[in-house]
Structures are given as structure tokens and as C-alpha cells.
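Table S5 (text form). Sequence records supplied for joint modeling of the six-component complex.
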Amino acid sequence: MPDLTHFDEQGASRMVDIGEKPVTHRMARASGIVRMQAATRRLILDRQLAKGDVLEVARLAGIMAAKRTGDLIPLCHPLPLDAVSIAFSEVGEDALRIEATVEVTAKTGVEMEALMAVSVAALTVYDMCKSVDRAMRVECVQLEEKSGGRSGHFVRE
Amino acid sequence: MPDLTHFDEQGASRMVDIGEKPVTHRMARASGIVRMQAATRRLILDRQLAKGDVLEVARLAGIMAAKRTGDLIPLCHPLPLDAVSIAFSEVGEDALRIEATVEVTAKTGVEMEALMAVSVAALTVYDMCKSVDRAMRVECVQLEEKSGGRSGHFVRE
Amino acid sequence: MPDLTHFDEQGASRMVDIGEKPVTHRMARASGIVRMQAATRRLILDRQLAKGDVLEVARLAGIMAAKRTGDLIPLCHPLPLDAVSIAFSEVGEDALRIEATVEVTAKTGVEMEALMAVSVAALTVYDMCKSVDRAMRVECVQLEEKSGGRSGHFVRE
Amino acid sequence: MPDLTHFDEQGASRMVDIGEKPVTHRMARASGIVRMQAATRRLILDRQLAKGDVLEVARLAGIMAAKRTGDLIPLCHPLPLDAVSIAFSEVGEDALRIEATVEVTAKTGVEMEALMAVSVAALTVYDMCKSVDRAMRVECVQLEEKSGGRSGHFVRE
Amino acid sequence: MPDLTHFDEQGASRMVDIGEKPVTHRMARASGIVRMQAATRRLILDRQLAKGDVLEVARLAGIMAAKRTGDLIPLCHPLPLDAVSIAFSEVGEDALRIEATVEVTAKTGVEMEALMAVSVAALTVYDMCKSVDRAMRVECVQLEEKSGGRSGHFVRE
Amino acid sequence: MPDLTHFDEQGASRMVDIGEKPVTHRMARASGIVRMQAATRRLILDRQLAKGDVLEVARLAGIMAAKRTGDLIPLCHPLPLDAVSIAFSEVGEDALRIEATVEVTAKTGVEMEALMAVSVAALTVYDMCKSVDRAMRVECVQLEEKSGGRSGHFVRE
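The corresponding C-alpha cell record, covering 942 residues in total, follows.
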């Protein structure tokens, strides 16, 4: 099995040296699901009923969190992101799917940024709705696609 | 169905007024699972093989993220946390369970802090191991227990 | 004229000692105006035309900035805010008024937090609309009301 | 009227994709005014009387805020700034003018950084002097000049 | 030898639980020295020659860093500081001494905040003067005094 | 003596313009010492006795602080770091030496980032061990080597 690159030969954690890697255009797409009561989802999707736009608050939180990934994940490189977008869709009767797409022109990829955007957007949905449905759950936060780096084009099967 | 408290009558988002709520001791416990290849988990748990301590890096990231919850979740109140701890355990052959416990003496609870600690610890495990297992997945991020507020003692069934 | 309390006898800046001040409930209300083309304002207020909700983005930015006032204003005390809300209203044909209200139970007041919320909300309106109206202007950012401290109830005349 | 670029076709906010834009040298200059009592301004400008240097504190706050614009304005891109400077001048008897100039070599401009520097410098002047003049007001925060991007050279008339 | 309280029985790091500790007034005083060429110190102390006020920039940086200690030291509790001040004095011909005093009313002390204020003020002196004296050195960063907690009054001998 | 570049002709602080400087690969290496009781050092180095890994916590704190140097040192440029690593070694019987190496491909160097990494790692060692040895001291924080910029290769003699 290959080594964990975030540790050196003595086991010390480090921010891996990307100085020699080429600057390329890179993209990552991640997704996650917020499972909730069907009534909670109806409430979220009916802006009349909800009075406000839960998903827009979650979207902004996710975009802002993507920009702070380097502050939150200890060994991540800080990156000047080119683009971040977040989309929501319905899954069955009782879940929302969140998908974040992040792009950068840099020496390393943005999969952590995409996963962070999904996670913080999901937690914000939870925060906005926890007064009506405390048992919501975040599921299946995962990388969907990644392109532009040395490791080639990854697409989850 | 009750209202979403984060919106006012016109649907404007707001940070809810907690000025009148009593200061009490509050606790929240949240959990999540990182699903991975069995070989990846063996690598993480064998510090000899991994060369470094993946879980300690993830634990610190989770603790630090708990302290920044008010910066990341738009309508969360900033809180002076009393305690944060994070524990890892094995689930089946191919998953790690993360549990975060947060305590505070304040006017509002810390469930978002506990969920944030779990999420960022999980993403840090992903970051540390993504070079060997890109398809890892974060699952079941959920509140387990919550005590100390007006809404009473919540324990997930 | 009284002294500037943020300097000591030698002229060194300092974070003023509030250790002896009583903890009381404090409120501050600040306002500001964004002057723009009438067409820009019509665009903002017609969510159909704008496609999105400029004011909700600005509101969230203002609320989040209020929480970070202690990080941005060098000699401000960090405060655990109880409540933040932001309201928009129309002024004439070509301006939007922003009003922020912040509350805290603490040893010092929150007028800087209210002014910061207004300023960052105003700049976010600018950012969202600058592609159609680069000459927008932020005007009249000022304290409207302040209560709860030793200096008494301030209401702008 | 052109579209607001920060929303997509469905009205979702997003960080606009600048991946294809060329890296060029860009500059933005913004200004603002702090209106105050004439006595307050005399106090600020007479370092003997004030005991400390209000404007230097405000200048540093403005420069540091410019660096954090991407953290504060939700859909702004994080940018590696080349230069930030802030100048103060007198206006009439009762006002100070603040002008910030920001430069970058990047795919997008720095007008938000310049406006943020002015706003936070102005609020810091307020904070430093509020114990003697609570009714100060920030006025006319606006872009003065902008160069280097696709939209050409903007100079306020 | 007593245990390191930041680790639990299994060696996991944690933010120690201070929930049961009484809220008391606490103070910490720390100091440090910046050793430099005598000519560099003359330059710093002669504001005419230096053109600007190196020590005021360093002071503000130190105060702002004290407020962010909980963000920087992984297991520190975030604290609502009551007061921060920083003083400079001359030592011999070629050194500046920095002393920071921090106060809080809380369940835990502020020695890390005082040490952080000294360290960041010292590094800022370095940054301001490195173009003329790259070999400056920060020395003797240490706690001088601490009062208000269970461990009693500490004064360095 | 040359001028302090962080001040302009009027003595105003500023972030120096690096727009015209070439992008080159740059490296900086800094070191510092934490002086402590010999028993404290034995405790740190014996992970069995300490129960946890003090140095790994300090290492992560130092790496994360390096990434935030531009937020902490007022006139530093924000930089997209390529690599950060931190090593510990023993000095005599009662001290630990910390060495940080930072690399970047940018228009300005990373000596402040290396010094910040050393300082925050040192303070974290202090924080982890202060319950057993309050009199620990940080010494000799200094630049060891710097390469890649116009000022040539600096190696401390």
C-alpha cells in the first residue's frame, strides 16, 4: 500500500511540497445528502411556508466555507479559488442532495474544498431546521469527480 | 408545524435573540462514520505502518473547528466553549466512528459545535488518506444527545 | 475635551480595561444608505428580474461580519452576541436603507458591531450589483440608538 | 439591463468562474469621508492633544481588512494582494477623507478590497473617537478608479 | 510528576473541561526581548529617522493576536478578554523589551494570550525592520506573573 | 542606514508594492528553542509517560499558524504556501529546538511564515506543559536561512 504523503519518514505531519508541480486547471465535484422528515423537506421547499430561503443560506455558508478550507484542514494548501457553486436537488421524499463544484488554477486540487462546501452547507440546513426536526442526518458526503491533476480523471462509479 | 426560528415574519434571516434565556450548563454529543477500504483502516490504526497518527491530526482539526462554528454557520451564536473532546472507535471492518462531545455554560446549546467537530475531523481523515483511498465516504453525521436547554434532554433512539 | 480612552498616558494604544464594569443588557442600532441608479434598485427589488435575492446575501454577510467585529477593529473587545438582525427599506427612488440591530449581555456595548453589520451589508449590495452599476455609493453610516451602558440612552436626533 | 453575474439561471448565488480570465495587473482606488465635530478633528490631527495616533491605528485596520475581504464578502474571490496603502486628508473643517489604493496581479479586480479598506478604516476612526463624539458619520464610500480588467479603465466623474 | 492535562487517559488531546471552575478575575503578564543591532534600535526609537512608528504597529499586532489565541493554540479556550496592553522598554544598547498584560473574568487564565501578544508584537518588530537588520532575534519569551486562578499567584523569580 | 520599507515618505505604514517583483521559488528556515526543566523534557519525549504526543500537537499548530501569517502580521502579504514542515531536536538536557522550513513560489519571501511557525509551535509546547512547568521560556527565535529573493542567499553565521 502506498504511503500517506502527509507524514514524513519519521512520522511527522507536514504540508506536502507542491513547489515542483505544474499549475493546471483543476476541478472537483462532491456531494452529500441531508436526510430529514418528509414534512421538514416540504417546509424547506415551500418558501411561502418556511417564510425564508433555507437553501440560499446553506449555499452561501458552503461557498464561504470552501474559501476557508486551508484554515480548517491542517495540512491543506491555501488556494485562490476560481469558482464555487452549490446545487440542491430532491432525493426520494425525505432527503435533499447537495452538490458542490469547485475550480482552481493551481498546483494542487480542490477536492477538500468541495467536500467542505458540501459539509458546511449540510450543517447549515441542519441549523436552520433543527427547531422542527432535531434528528436530521448528513449522509454520503463523498467525492464525485476530480480532474486536472497528476492522478488523472477520477469519476466515482 | 412550528416555524423556522431563524427567519422573522418577513422571511429575513436573523441571529435569534437569546438575551432572555437563562445561562445553563449544556452538553451536546454528535457522531459520524468514515467508510473506507478495510486496508485503509488497517493502515490508519497501525501507527507503525502509517508512520504518523492520522487520528490525532483529525482530532485536533475537529477541536479547532468546534471553536470556529460561529464563524462558519451563518446564524450560530459565538460561544465560549468549556470543553471539547473527540473519540474514535472501530465499526465493522471498514469504518471508523467519530464521536464529539462539547460542553458550554451559556444561553444556547452546542449541537452545531459537536456536529462541526465531527464533520471536520471526518474530512481531515479523508484528507490524510485520500492519496491511498479516494472513494472514502462520510456517513451518518448526527446528533446523539443534547442536554441543558429549554427543549429538554434529547437522546437519539 | 475628554481623552480618547483607547490611548494611555504615553499615547500607546490599548484595549481598555472593562473588568470592573457591570454586565448589563445592551443594544445598538445603526443605519446606512446605498445610493444607486433607480434601475439598479428596481432590479434588486424584483427578485424575478434579478433572478436571486441580493438583500438576503447582504443580510447574511452583515450578520456574519457583526460576529467578527473584534477581529477587524483593533481595540474592540470580542463579545458573545445575543442577537443580530438587519432590515432593508426604500428611500426615494434610488436608494436602499440598511438598519442593523445588535444585542448583547456584556460589560461593553455593541455599536461597532451594528456599524460593521451595516457597512459589510452595504458593500455586499455593491458587490452583487457592481456589474450593472459601478458608481453606487455608501452613505450615512451612523449610530441611531444605543442603550444599556454607563453613558446612558443615546438616540440620534 | 444586464444580469447580476453572482446569480445563475435559477437564481442561486455562486462565486463566478474566473478560470478563463487572463492574469493582469489590476488597481482599484476607493474613498470615503468621516464627518465629525470640528473639535474632534482637531483632536485627531493634534497628536500632542490626542496622545496617540488615531489615523495610524485606522490605517492598519484598513490594510488588514483589505486582506480579509474574501472572508467577509460572500462571493468575492480570495486574492493575493500586491500592495495596499491608505491616505488621509482634510475636507472642510469637520471631516476626514480616506483613500485606499489596492493592487493585485490576478484574474479579477480589487475594488471590493479598496472599499473594505476604506470602510474599516473609517469605522476604526469612529471607534477610537466615539467616547468624545458619538454622532460621527461615514459618508460617500465609493469607487474612484479601477484599471486592469476587461471592463476597462473606470474613473469616477 | 503530574499529568499533562491536555491528554486523556488514552493519550487523546482534548480541550480540558473548565465547566466546574469558578469565574474569577484573572491577570497574566508576559515579556520578551528583541535583540538587534544598536543602529536598528536607534532607528526604531527615533521616529524622525524611521519616518513611522514601528512600536505602535507592533503593539496593535500584539493586541489583535491576543484576541485570536483560541484560534491559534489548538487546545486553548476562547475567552472574552477584558483588557490587553503592551509596553516597550529599552534593554542595554541593542535590545527592546516587550511586556504584555492581559485581563479576563473567566474560568481559565490568560497566560497564553499574554505570551501570544508578546510573540506577535516581537515578530512584527522583526517584520518592520528586517530590510535593515535580518539577524534580529526574539529572546526570553516568558510568563512574568499570573494571578486569579486555582494555582495561586505566580511571580517569576 | 536604509529606510524601513513599510513606511512611505510621510511615515504612513503600507503594504509594500511587490507587483513588479518576479515570481521565484523562495525558501526560509527559522529556528527557536524552548527551555524547560529536564524532567519536563523527559516527559515530552517519553510518549508512554506523557500519554500523548506534545510535539505533534505543536507541529500542527505551527503549520496552521504559518498559513495565517498574513492575517497576523499587519503588513505581510498573503501568500499561497507550497510547503511547510517543522522538526524538533534535543539541545543539552533541558531544551527542545524547533526548526520550521517554508517554501513558496511568489513575489516575496516567507521568513515571517517560518518565524511564525516556530513561535506558535513553541507556545503550543508551553501550553501543553504549563501545568507541570510554568517557567518554561522561548529563546532564540531567529532566521537561519533564506533564499530565492533579490536580497540573495542569507545564511546565519
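Note: The first strand of chain A starts at residue 24 and ends at 35.
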